[in-house]
Amino acid sequence: RLTTAAEPLDILQKIFGFSSFRGLQEDAVSAVMRGEDALVLMPTGGGKSLCYQVPALCRFGMGLVISPLIALMDDQVAGLKQLGVKAAALHSELEADERVRLWEQLRSNQLDLLYVSPERLLTPSLLDVLKGRSLSLIAIDEAHCVSAWGHEFRPEYRELATIKEHFPDVPRIALTATADTRTRDDILSVLHMEKARVFVASFHRTNLFLQAQPKLSETRQVIDALERHMGQGAAIVYCGSRRRTERVAALLREKGFTALAFHAGLSPIEKRALLLRFRSGEPIVVVATIAFGMGIDRPDVRTVIHLDMPASPEGYYQQIGRAGRDGELSHTLLLYGGEAMARARYWLEQSQAPESEKRVMQGRLESMIALTETTGCRTQAILACFGEMLPSPCGHCDNCLHPPATFDGKEAAQKVLSA
Ligand code: ADP
Ligand code: MG
Protein backbone atom coordinates (compact mmCIF):
# COMPACT_ATOMS: atom_id res chain seq x y z
CA ARG A 1 0.00 0.00 0.00
CA LEU A 2 1.56 3.21 -1.06
CA THR A 3 -0.63 5.87 0.40
CA THR A 4 -2.24 5.04 3.71
CA ALA A 5 -1.25 2.92 6.63
CA ALA A 6 -4.09 0.63 7.72
CA GLU A 7 -4.92 -1.65 10.58
CA PRO A 8 -4.49 -5.40 9.95
CA LEU A 9 -7.98 -6.33 11.11
CA ASP A 10 -9.45 -3.66 8.86
CA ILE A 11 -7.58 -5.01 5.85
CA LEU A 12 -8.55 -8.57 6.72
CA GLN A 13 -12.21 -7.64 6.83
CA LYS A 14 -12.48 -5.03 4.09
CA ILE A 15 -10.16 -6.54 1.48
CA PHE A 16 -10.22 -10.25 2.22
CA GLY A 17 -13.73 -10.43 3.62
CA PHE A 18 -12.86 -12.53 6.68
CA SER A 19 -14.19 -11.58 10.08
CA SER A 20 -11.22 -12.62 12.21
CA PHE A 21 -7.71 -14.00 12.11
CA ARG A 22 -7.23 -17.71 12.55
CA GLY A 23 -4.81 -19.33 14.99
CA LEU A 24 -1.37 -17.78 14.90
CA GLN A 25 -2.07 -15.41 12.03
CA GLU A 26 -2.66 -12.43 14.26
CA ASP A 27 0.60 -12.84 16.20
CA ALA A 28 2.62 -13.42 13.05
CA VAL A 29 1.07 -10.36 11.41
CA SER A 30 1.80 -8.23 14.49
CA ALA A 31 5.44 -9.28 14.51
CA VAL A 32 5.89 -8.27 10.89
CA MET A 33 3.97 -5.03 11.49
CA ARG A 34 6.52 -4.18 14.18
CA GLY A 35 9.28 -4.79 11.65
CA GLU A 36 10.49 -8.08 13.14
CA ASP A 37 11.52 -11.11 11.09
CA ALA A 38 9.24 -14.11 11.45
CA LEU A 39 9.14 -17.80 10.61
CA VAL A 40 5.67 -19.29 10.32
CA LEU A 41 5.10 -23.05 10.42
CA MET A 42 1.55 -24.04 9.67
CA PRO A 43 0.11 -27.12 8.02
CA THR A 44 -1.08 -26.91 4.44
CA GLY A 45 -4.36 -25.02 4.35
CA GLY A 46 -3.58 -23.35 7.65
CA GLY A 47 -3.67 -19.86 6.18
CA LYS A 48 -0.06 -18.83 5.70
CA SER A 49 -0.71 -16.44 2.80
CA LEU A 50 -2.59 -13.91 4.90
CA CYS A 51 0.35 -13.75 7.32
CA TYR A 52 2.25 -11.78 4.68
CA GLN A 53 -0.54 -10.42 2.48
CA VAL A 54 -2.17 -8.47 5.30
CA PRO A 55 0.95 -6.74 6.64
CA ALA A 56 2.11 -6.09 3.07
CA LEU A 57 -1.09 -4.11 2.52
CA CYS A 58 -0.86 -2.35 5.88
CA ARG A 59 2.75 -1.26 5.81
CA PHE A 60 4.14 1.41 3.58
CA GLY A 61 5.69 0.21 0.33
CA MET A 62 5.38 -2.82 -1.92
CA GLY A 63 5.43 -6.36 -0.58
CA LEU A 64 7.76 -8.78 -2.27
CA VAL A 65 6.83 -12.47 -2.27
CA ILE A 66 9.27 -15.17 -3.26
CA SER A 67 7.58 -18.31 -4.48
CA PRO A 68 9.03 -21.39 -6.15
CA LEU A 69 6.36 -22.17 -8.72
CA ILE A 70 4.85 -20.15 -11.54
CA ALA A 71 1.47 -21.85 -11.17
CA LEU A 72 1.45 -20.97 -7.48
CA MET A 73 2.26 -17.31 -8.19
CA ASP A 74 -0.33 -16.99 -10.95
CA ASP A 75 -3.01 -18.46 -8.71
CA GLN A 76 -2.31 -16.09 -5.89
CA VAL A 77 -2.10 -13.06 -8.15
CA ALA A 78 -5.38 -13.93 -9.85
CA GLY A 79 -7.06 -14.25 -6.45
CA LEU A 80 -5.65 -10.97 -5.20
CA LYS A 81 -6.64 -9.08 -8.32
CA GLN A 82 -10.21 -10.23 -7.84
CA LEU A 83 -10.10 -8.60 -4.43
CA GLY A 84 -8.88 -5.38 -5.96
CA VAL A 85 -5.29 -5.73 -4.79
CA LYS A 86 -2.64 -4.53 -7.24
CA ALA A 87 -0.60 -7.68 -7.53
CA ALA A 88 1.62 -9.07 -10.26
CA ALA A 89 4.00 -11.96 -10.83
CA LEU A 90 7.32 -11.69 -12.59
CA HIS A 91 8.48 -14.95 -14.14
CA SER A 92 9.79 -16.52 -17.30
CA GLU A 93 6.40 -17.34 -18.79
CA LEU A 94 5.14 -13.77 -19.14
CA GLU A 95 4.26 -12.53 -22.63
CA ALA A 96 6.43 -9.69 -23.89
CA ASP A 97 3.70 -7.06 -23.49
CA GLU A 98 2.85 -8.27 -19.98
CA ARG A 99 6.48 -7.93 -19.08
CA VAL A 100 6.70 -4.38 -20.38
CA ARG A 101 3.59 -3.37 -18.45
CA LEU A 102 4.87 -4.98 -15.27
CA TRP A 103 8.16 -3.09 -15.40
CA GLU A 104 6.25 0.14 -15.93
CA GLN A 105 4.08 -0.58 -12.90
CA LEU A 106 7.17 -1.36 -10.90
CA ARG A 107 9.00 1.79 -11.86
CA SER A 108 5.99 3.97 -11.15
CA ASN A 109 5.24 2.40 -7.75
CA GLN A 110 1.86 1.03 -8.75
CA LEU A 111 2.06 -2.40 -7.16
CA ASP A 112 1.02 -3.54 -3.71
CA LEU A 113 2.47 -7.02 -4.08
CA LEU A 114 5.02 -8.49 -6.43
CA TYR A 115 5.48 -12.25 -6.70
CA VAL A 116 8.80 -13.38 -8.04
CA SER A 117 10.87 -16.54 -8.35
CA PRO A 118 14.13 -16.64 -6.38
CA GLU A 119 16.35 -16.69 -9.47
CA ARG A 120 14.47 -13.69 -10.91
CA LEU A 121 14.77 -11.66 -7.73
CA LEU A 122 18.52 -11.89 -7.67
CA THR A 123 19.07 -10.57 -11.20
CA PRO A 124 20.91 -7.22 -11.16
CA SER A 125 18.20 -5.41 -13.13
CA LEU A 126 15.42 -6.30 -10.69
CA LEU A 127 17.56 -5.74 -7.60
CA ASP A 128 18.38 -2.32 -8.97
CA VAL A 129 14.77 -1.31 -9.41
CA LEU A 130 13.76 -2.74 -6.05
CA LYS A 131 16.48 -0.93 -4.19
CA GLY A 132 15.03 2.36 -5.38
CA ARG A 133 11.58 1.47 -3.95
CA SER A 134 10.18 1.14 -0.46
CA LEU A 135 9.45 -2.44 0.42
CA SER A 136 6.89 -3.27 3.10
CA LEU A 137 8.21 -6.79 3.63
CA ILE A 138 9.82 -9.75 1.93
CA ALA A 139 7.95 -13.03 2.20
CA ILE A 140 9.71 -16.29 1.45
CA ASP A 141 6.94 -18.78 0.79
CA GLU A 142 7.59 -22.54 0.80
CA ALA A 143 10.74 -21.72 2.72
CA HIS A 144 11.63 -25.40 3.27
CA CYS A 145 13.00 -25.24 -0.29
CA VAL A 146 16.21 -23.80 1.22
CA SER A 147 16.87 -27.01 3.09
CA ALA A 148 19.20 -29.40 1.34
CA TRP A 149 17.92 -32.16 3.61
CA GLY A 150 14.41 -31.63 2.43
CA HIS A 151 12.35 -33.36 -0.18
CA GLU A 152 11.77 -30.20 -2.22
CA PHE A 153 15.22 -28.64 -2.19
CA ARG A 154 15.76 -25.75 -4.62
CA PRO A 155 19.37 -24.63 -5.04
CA GLU A 156 18.12 -21.13 -6.02
CA TYR A 157 16.56 -20.75 -2.60
CA ARG A 158 20.00 -20.93 -1.00
CA GLU A 159 20.93 -17.71 -2.81
CA LEU A 160 18.23 -15.94 -0.84
CA ALA A 161 20.84 -15.74 1.91
CA THR A 162 21.87 -12.46 0.27
CA ILE A 163 18.54 -10.65 0.60
CA LYS A 164 19.44 -9.59 4.11
CA GLU A 165 22.42 -7.69 2.70
CA HIS A 166 20.45 -6.22 -0.19
CA PHE A 167 17.52 -5.13 1.98
CA PRO A 168 18.77 -4.88 5.56
CA ASP A 169 15.83 -2.86 6.87
CA VAL A 170 12.97 -4.80 5.36
CA PRO A 171 11.27 -7.35 7.63
CA ARG A 172 11.30 -10.88 6.29
CA ILE A 173 8.74 -13.57 6.87
CA ALA A 174 9.47 -17.17 5.90
CA LEU A 175 6.61 -19.66 5.67
CA THR A 176 6.39 -23.42 5.32
CA ALA A 177 4.27 -26.45 6.08
CA THR A 178 7.33 -28.57 6.76
CA ALA A 179 7.68 -28.70 10.47
CA ASP A 180 10.60 -30.78 11.59
CA THR A 181 13.19 -28.99 13.67
CA ARG A 182 16.05 -29.64 11.29
CA THR A 183 14.29 -27.90 8.41
CA ARG A 184 13.30 -25.08 10.76
CA ASP A 185 16.90 -24.56 11.88
CA ASP A 186 18.08 -24.75 8.29
CA ILE A 187 15.69 -22.01 7.19
CA LEU A 188 16.75 -19.74 10.02
CA SER A 189 20.45 -20.20 9.40
CA VAL A 190 20.44 -20.17 5.58
CA LEU A 191 18.35 -16.99 5.50
CA HIS A 192 20.28 -15.40 8.39
CA MET A 193 17.11 -15.09 10.37
CA GLU A 194 18.46 -16.21 13.74
CA LYS A 195 16.58 -13.43 15.50
CA ALA A 196 13.25 -14.21 13.85
CA ARG A 197 10.15 -14.83 15.92
CA VAL A 198 9.06 -18.41 15.30
CA PHE A 199 5.36 -19.25 15.13
CA VAL A 200 4.47 -22.92 15.17
CA ALA A 201 0.87 -23.96 14.70
CA SER A 202 -0.41 -27.36 15.71
CA PHE A 203 -0.10 -29.82 12.88
CA HIS A 204 -2.86 -32.04 14.17
CA ARG A 205 -5.49 -32.49 11.46
CA THR A 206 -8.50 -33.99 13.16
CA ASN A 207 -10.27 -34.72 9.88
CA LEU A 208 -7.53 -37.01 8.55
CA PHE A 209 -7.90 -40.73 9.06
CA LEU A 210 -4.43 -42.29 8.92
CA GLN A 211 -4.02 -45.88 7.91
CA ALA A 212 -1.14 -48.13 6.88
CA GLN A 213 -1.42 -51.68 5.54
CA PRO A 214 1.07 -54.28 4.44
CA LYS A 215 0.98 -54.74 0.68
CA LEU A 216 -0.97 -57.88 -0.07
CA SER A 217 -2.69 -57.28 -3.36
CA GLU A 218 -1.74 -53.74 -4.26
CA THR A 219 -4.27 -53.20 -7.04
CA ARG A 220 -7.11 -54.64 -5.01
CA GLN A 221 -6.19 -52.48 -2.04
CA VAL A 222 -6.03 -49.27 -4.06
CA ILE A 223 -9.30 -49.88 -5.86
CA ASP A 224 -10.96 -50.78 -2.61
CA ALA A 225 -9.77 -47.57 -0.96
CA LEU A 226 -10.84 -45.46 -3.93
CA GLU A 227 -14.26 -47.06 -4.08
CA ARG A 228 -14.84 -46.56 -0.40
CA HIS A 229 -13.55 -43.07 0.10
CA MET A 230 -13.36 -41.03 -3.07
CA GLY A 231 -17.05 -40.28 -3.50
CA GLN A 232 -17.56 -37.29 -5.80
CA GLY A 233 -14.19 -35.81 -4.82
CA ALA A 234 -10.65 -36.39 -5.97
CA ALA A 235 -7.91 -38.84 -5.02
CA ILE A 236 -4.13 -38.74 -5.21
CA VAL A 237 -2.13 -41.94 -5.51
CA TYR A 238 1.58 -41.39 -4.89
CA CYS A 239 4.11 -43.73 -6.53
CA GLY A 240 7.87 -43.95 -6.32
CA SER A 241 8.66 -43.65 -10.03
CA ARG A 242 7.40 -42.02 -13.21
CA ARG A 243 6.95 -45.34 -14.99
CA ARG A 244 4.86 -46.64 -12.14
CA THR A 245 2.52 -43.64 -12.25
CA GLU A 246 1.83 -44.32 -15.93
CA ARG A 247 1.23 -48.01 -15.34
CA VAL A 248 -1.03 -47.55 -12.33
CA ALA A 249 -3.03 -44.80 -14.06
CA ALA A 250 -3.59 -47.07 -17.07
CA LEU A 251 -4.66 -49.88 -14.81
CA LEU A 252 -7.14 -47.69 -12.96
CA ARG A 253 -8.59 -46.47 -16.25
CA GLU A 254 -9.14 -50.09 -17.26
CA LYS A 255 -11.11 -50.48 -14.06
CA GLY A 256 -13.31 -47.55 -14.97
CA PHE A 257 -11.72 -44.69 -13.03
CA THR A 258 -10.88 -41.33 -14.54
CA ALA A 259 -7.18 -41.55 -13.77
CA LEU A 260 -4.27 -39.44 -15.00
CA ALA A 261 -0.54 -39.72 -14.39
CA PHE A 262 1.50 -36.72 -13.24
CA HIS A 263 5.28 -36.53 -12.96
CA ALA A 264 8.18 -34.21 -13.67
CA GLY A 265 8.61 -35.72 -17.14
CA LEU A 266 5.40 -34.16 -18.49
CA SER A 267 5.63 -31.08 -20.67
CA PRO A 268 4.44 -27.76 -19.18
CA ILE A 269 1.36 -27.95 -21.42
CA GLU A 270 0.49 -31.46 -20.25
CA LYS A 271 0.97 -30.42 -16.64
CA ARG A 272 -1.26 -27.41 -17.01
CA ALA A 273 -3.98 -29.43 -18.74
CA LEU A 274 -3.94 -31.95 -15.91
CA LEU A 275 -4.04 -29.27 -13.23
CA LEU A 276 -7.01 -27.63 -14.94
CA ARG A 277 -8.96 -30.88 -14.92
CA PHE A 278 -7.94 -31.59 -11.36
CA ARG A 279 -9.18 -28.19 -10.23
CA SER A 280 -12.37 -28.35 -12.28
CA GLY A 281 -14.02 -30.39 -9.55
CA GLU A 282 -14.73 -33.57 -11.53
CA PRO A 283 -14.12 -36.84 -9.70
CA ILE A 284 -10.60 -37.73 -10.73
CA VAL A 285 -7.65 -39.83 -9.58
CA VAL A 286 -4.20 -38.33 -10.07
CA VAL A 287 -1.47 -40.96 -9.95
CA ALA A 288 1.68 -39.01 -9.26
CA THR A 289 5.23 -38.82 -8.10
CA ILE A 290 6.06 -36.29 -5.41
CA ALA A 291 6.38 -33.74 -8.23
CA PHE A 292 2.62 -33.32 -7.71
CA GLY A 293 2.74 -31.22 -4.64
CA MET A 294 3.14 -27.59 -3.86
CA GLY A 295 0.18 -25.51 -4.81
CA ILE A 296 -2.25 -28.40 -5.04
CA ASP A 297 -5.22 -26.85 -3.36
CA ARG A 298 -8.34 -28.71 -4.40
CA PRO A 299 -10.48 -28.70 -1.25
CA ASP A 300 -12.21 -32.05 -1.75
CA VAL A 301 -9.32 -34.47 -2.11
CA ARG A 302 -11.01 -37.32 -0.22
CA THR A 303 -8.16 -39.77 -0.17
CA VAL A 304 -4.38 -39.84 -0.54
CA ILE A 305 -2.82 -43.25 -1.10
CA HIS A 306 0.87 -44.11 -1.02
CA LEU A 307 1.78 -47.13 -3.11
CA ASP A 308 5.43 -46.72 -2.13
CA MET A 309 6.81 -45.62 1.17
CA PRO A 310 7.72 -41.92 1.36
CA ALA A 311 11.34 -41.09 2.16
CA SER A 312 10.56 -39.15 5.31
CA PRO A 313 7.77 -38.36 7.78
CA GLU A 314 7.87 -34.71 6.62
CA GLY A 315 7.24 -35.67 3.00
CA TYR A 316 4.55 -38.12 4.04
CA TYR A 317 2.72 -35.62 6.20
CA GLN A 318 2.85 -32.90 3.61
CA GLN A 319 1.51 -35.31 0.97
CA ILE A 320 -1.38 -36.63 3.04
CA GLY A 321 -2.03 -33.03 4.13
CA ARG A 322 -3.40 -32.41 0.64
CA ALA A 323 -6.46 -34.43 1.62
CA GLY A 324 -9.44 -32.80 3.26
CA ARG A 325 -8.57 -29.16 2.95
CA ASP A 326 -12.28 -28.47 3.18
CA GLY A 327 -12.20 -29.88 6.71
CA GLU A 328 -14.37 -32.92 5.84
CA LEU A 329 -13.34 -36.40 6.89
CA SER A 330 -10.69 -37.77 4.53
CA HIS A 331 -8.79 -41.02 4.35
CA THR A 332 -5.15 -41.77 3.80
CA LEU A 333 -3.64 -45.16 3.13
CA LEU A 334 0.02 -46.11 3.16
CA LEU A 335 0.91 -49.47 1.64
CA TYR A 336 4.20 -50.94 2.72
CA GLY A 337 6.27 -54.06 2.25
CA GLY A 338 9.37 -55.35 3.97
CA GLU A 339 11.14 -55.76 0.66
CA ALA A 340 10.65 -52.10 -0.24
CA MET A 341 12.04 -51.02 3.10
CA ALA A 342 15.11 -53.18 2.64
CA ARG A 343 15.58 -51.80 -0.86
CA ALA A 344 15.28 -48.18 0.32
CA ARG A 345 17.90 -48.85 2.99
CA TYR A 346 20.17 -50.50 0.45
CA TRP A 347 19.94 -47.63 -2.06
CA LEU A 348 20.70 -45.08 0.57
CA GLU A 349 23.69 -47.07 1.69
CA GLN A 350 24.96 -47.21 -1.91
CA SER A 351 24.25 -43.56 -2.66
CA GLN A 352 27.09 -41.20 -3.54
CA ALA A 353 25.74 -38.43 -1.33
CA PRO A 354 28.12 -36.92 1.24
CA GLU A 355 28.29 -38.93 4.48
CA SER A 356 26.60 -36.24 6.58
CA GLU A 357 23.71 -35.96 4.16
CA LYS A 358 23.38 -39.72 3.97
CA ARG A 359 23.12 -39.96 7.73
CA VAL A 360 20.26 -37.45 7.79
CA MET A 361 18.43 -39.28 5.01
CA GLN A 362 18.97 -42.57 6.82
CA GLY A 363 17.56 -41.06 9.99
CA ARG A 364 14.49 -39.88 8.13
CA LEU A 365 13.99 -43.21 6.44
CA GLU A 366 14.23 -45.05 9.76
CA SER A 367 11.68 -42.65 11.32
CA MET A 368 9.40 -43.30 8.37
CA ILE A 369 9.76 -47.06 8.78
CA ALA A 370 9.11 -46.82 12.50
CA LEU A 371 6.04 -44.73 11.80
CA THR A 372 4.78 -47.31 9.34
CA GLU A 373 5.28 -50.18 11.75
CA THR A 374 4.00 -48.49 14.88
CA THR A 375 1.22 -50.23 16.74
CA GLY A 376 0.44 -47.09 18.72
CA CYS A 377 -1.52 -44.00 17.72
CA ARG A 378 -0.27 -42.96 14.29
CA THR A 379 -1.20 -39.32 14.71
CA GLN A 380 0.75 -39.12 17.95
CA ALA A 381 3.70 -40.82 16.29
CA ILE A 382 3.84 -38.48 13.33
CA LEU A 383 3.31 -35.32 15.34
CA ALA A 384 6.14 -36.45 17.60
CA CYS A 385 8.38 -36.38 14.51
CA PHE A 386 7.69 -32.63 14.40
CA GLY A 387 8.27 -32.15 18.11
CA GLU A 388 4.56 -31.91 18.90
CA MET A 389 3.17 -33.98 21.77
CA LEU A 390 -0.45 -34.94 21.41
CA PRO A 391 -1.54 -35.62 25.00
CA SER A 392 -3.84 -38.51 24.19
CA PRO A 393 -4.31 -40.89 21.25
CA CYS A 394 -6.17 -39.29 18.33
CA GLY A 395 -8.99 -41.82 18.20
CA HIS A 396 -9.20 -41.50 14.43
CA CYS A 397 -6.31 -43.55 13.00
CA ASP A 398 -6.31 -47.27 12.20
CA ASN A 399 -4.42 -48.25 15.34
CA CYS A 400 -6.77 -46.26 17.57
CA LEU A 401 -9.91 -47.58 15.91
CA HIS A 402 -8.73 -51.17 15.53
CA PRO A 403 -5.90 -51.81 17.95
CA PRO A 404 -3.47 -54.31 16.40
CA ALA A 405 -3.27 -57.81 17.83
CA THR A 406 -0.03 -57.03 19.64
CA PHE A 407 -1.96 -54.77 21.98
CA ASP A 408 -0.41 -53.14 24.98
CA GLY A 409 -1.67 -55.18 27.92
CA LYS A 410 -0.99 -52.44 30.39
CA GLU A 411 -3.02 -49.90 28.52
CA ALA A 412 -5.90 -52.32 28.14
CA ALA A 413 -5.75 -53.08 31.84
CA GLN A 414 -5.81 -49.39 32.66
CA LYS A 415 -8.88 -48.92 30.50
CA VAL A 416 -10.67 -51.74 32.28
CA LEU A 417 -9.71 -50.36 35.67
CA SER A 418 -10.77 -46.82 34.84
CA ALA A 419 -14.03 -47.93 33.21
P1 ADP B 1 -1.49 -22.32 3.28
O1 ADP B 1 -0.65 -21.40 2.45
O2 ADP B 1 -1.10 -22.31 4.73
O3 ADP B 1 -1.57 -23.72 2.75
P2 ADP B 1 -3.63 -20.59 2.45
O4 ADP B 1 -3.00 -19.32 2.82
O5 ADP B 1 -3.65 -20.96 1.02
O6 ADP B 1 -2.99 -21.79 3.27
O7 ADP B 1 -5.11 -20.58 3.06
C1 ADP B 1 -5.94 -21.70 3.00
C2 ADP B 1 -7.39 -21.29 2.99
O8 ADP B 1 -7.80 -20.77 4.24
C3 ADP B 1 -7.69 -20.20 1.98
O9 ADP B 1 -8.84 -20.57 1.27
C4 ADP B 1 -7.93 -18.98 2.82
O10 ADP B 1 -8.80 -18.07 2.19
C5 ADP B 1 -8.51 -19.54 4.09
N1 ADP B 1 -8.24 -18.68 5.25
C6 ADP B 1 -7.03 -18.29 5.68
N2 ADP B 1 -7.13 -17.48 6.77
C7 ADP B 1 -8.45 -17.35 7.03
C8 ADP B 1 -9.19 -16.63 8.04
N3 ADP B 1 -8.63 -15.89 8.97
N4 ADP B 1 -10.54 -16.74 8.00
C9 ADP B 1 -11.14 -17.50 7.03
N5 ADP B 1 -10.51 -18.18 6.07
C10 ADP B 1 -9.16 -18.12 6.05
MG1 MG C 1 0.72 -21.48 0.86
From TrEMBL:
Residues 236-286 form the Rhodanese domain. It is an enzyme of class 5 (isomerase). Keywords: ATP-binding, DNA damage, DNA recombination, DNA repair, DNA-binding, Helicase, Hydrolase, Isomerase, Metal-binding, Nucleotide-binding, Zinc. Residues 29-197 form the Helicase ATP-binding domain. This is DNA helicase RecQ. Its cofactor is Mg(2+); Zn(2+). Belongs to the helicase family. RecQ subfamily. Residues 221-369 form the Helicase C-terminal domain. The lineage of its organism: Bacteria, Pseudomonadati, Pseudomonadota, Alphaproteobacteria, Acetobacterales. Its EC number is 5.6.2.4. The chain holds residues 4 to 422 of 607 of the full protein. One of its GO terms (molecular function) is helicase activity. It catalyses: Couples ATP hydrolysis with the unwinding of duplex DNA by translocating in the 3'-5' direction. It comes from the Bacteria.
